[in-house]
Amino acid sequence: MSKNAKQHPLEGKRAPAFTLKSCSGAKVRLADLKGKIVVLYFYPKDNTSGCTIEAKGFRDAQKDMTKAGALVLGVSPDSVASHCRFRDNHDLNFDLLADPGHAVAEKYGVWIEKSMYGRKYMGVQRATFLIDQAGKICHVWPKVKPQGHAKEVLEAVSALK
To answer: pTM, whole model, 2 decimals?
Structure first.
């Protein structure tokens, strides 16, 4: 982070707890992942252009992420069924978690007011949280640009080792 960059309010704090259903049907609890590096990325919607670019980036980096000891988890308000279609359509090799009530997005501060063509609505801000082995958020990427993001995250994960 540059000297002038404002630190995200969750950076350096314990990651908010969650339990969400994955595409595999299992419930994923953050508490069960203690001791692992977790890349928790929030995205607005399955099968949209930006979200697909970002997911494919994480898919393509998965081998290196695993080698660096990181577990990638994608979160959006879409249903488990939608996540399964998205995963299958793009051969995704990591878990997608359903947050249909957007409670977890709210805990992480990424459920925000958005605007498109003058219409205001609530939705997920694309953001990524890097959670260390102790369960603390050690880096936050707010307002992510999908292209090349996974590579940037991988560099930060590699620096944790």
So the answer is: 0.94
